Amino acid sequence: MPTASHDDLLNARYGSQVKPDNIIWNAQVEQLIAHKSVRAFLPDPLPDGALETMVAAAQSASTSSNLNQWSVIAVSDATTRERLAYLAREQRPGQPEGAGVNEWIAQAPTVLLWVLDGSRNHETASAQGVPREVFDYLDSFLMGAVDTALAAQNAVVAAESIGLGVTYLGSMRNRAEEVAELVGLPRHSIVVFGMVVGRPDPQRDTNVRPRPAQNVVLHRERYNERPDGWLAAYERAYLEFRTASGMRPKTWADAIGGSVSYEYMDGRQNLRRTLQERGFGLQ
Ligand SMILES: Cc1cc2nc3c(=O)[nH]c(=O)nc-3n(C[C@H](O)[C@H](O)[C@H](O)COP(=O)(O)O)c2cc1C
Predict the structure, then answer these.
(1) Nearest C-alpha to atom 3 of ligand 1 is from which residue?
(2) In Å, what is the CA distance from 69 to each residue of 65, 115, 144, 157?
(3) Which of 101, 111, 167, 207 maximizes ligand 1 atoms within 8 Å of its Cβ, making it the mutation to test the pocket?
(4) pLDDT digits (tens, 9 = 90+) for 22-58
């Protein structure tokens, strides 16, 4: 749980940008605002009950029409974790085959794979012999993906409240079919993202990553104009964070530029085909 003052928490979250002065503080809000992704872990396995606590929190998230269309696979086996790290590699053009593996994925004691899981409901509906057109449509995919994310984020909040750290892994979609095969996913299911979880290594602590000021993302009544100078203000906060974290100077705009390149997808451009082969219609 955070021990920093409220001012420290807001300074970390927004840097030098304008900050709200009317937050309704409590322990839960403090913990949420103190969030940071963790990529360096102690080798200890998860404490007894941690997984079950996370899953109870995940199952307590709202779920569209109570359809419960997600599952989570907890991978602790070292060989499987290494394989997952390999499948999540960021392979840039011109790099040797197998480059870009993030070793920290394999070093986390547990990797959770968050699965959009329509297989149970498909099976339950099939047993009744009713038509199942919903699975042919994009909304079915989106609904399941949203529910999976809500569940996962509840698990993150629970994990952080018991002293664990996490990082989401969208890179589990880089080679989505191979990840599905590795863990034996049934049809009508797909790993939407993964998550490393473990006890943070205090020797390799990191800083809270600032976000744009609230007046950039909070619109009242209707979509408002972006405030003048918002990007420059965020760039200052972003640079302060990178400097304090010993990272090379890079602008957020550069990061956005990189995130829209073809290379950034790292195999995810095949996702529609994989989804359709696994039974998602996406019409
Ligand atoms: C759905 C999702 C997928 C992500 N995938 C990755 C990933 O593949 N690798 C990674 O290092 N971080 C990943 N992240 C972590 C983000 O980079 C991180 O949340 C963001 O930079 C903000 O940092 P913070 O979580 O420390 O506030 C992902 C986050 C989300 C929500």
Answers:
(1) 170
(2) 10, 8, 6, 20
(3) 167
(4) 999 999 999 999 999 999 999 999 999 999 999 999 9
Q: What is the spatial distance between Cα 138 and Cα 58, in angstroms, rounded to a whole number?
A: 24
Question: For residue 224, is it within any domain?
Answer: no
Nearest CA to 152 among 122, 111, 118?
A: 111
* 238 touches ligand 1 (CB under 6 Å): no
Computed over every residue of the chain, the mean pLDDT equals: 96
Ligand 1 and 207: CB distance under 6 A: no
The total number of structural domains that make up the chain: 1
Q: Is position 130 within any domain?
A: yes
Q: What is the span of the domain harbouring residue 134?
A: 36-206+245-277
Residue 149 lies in a domain: yes
Tell whether ligand 1 has an atom less than 6 A from the beta carbon of residue 40.
Answer: no
Section 262-268 average pLDDT? 90
Residue nearest to atom 19 of ligand 1 (CA): 37
Confidence tier at 90 by pLDDT (50, 70, 90): confident
CA of 36 to the centre of ligand 1 (A): 9
Residue 209 CA to ligand 1 center (angstroms) comes to 11
The two structure tokens encoding residue 61 = 């998230």
Find the CATH number of the domain harbouring 156: 3.40.109.10
CA of 204 to the centre of ligand 1 (A): 17
Q: Is residue 2 situated within a structural domain? A: no
DSSP character for 72?
E
> Taking Cα atoms as reference points, which of 275, 102, 57 lies closest to residue 194?
102
Q: What is the pLDDT of residues 147-190, one digit of tens each?
A: 999 999 999 999 999 999 999 999 999 999 999 999 999 999 99
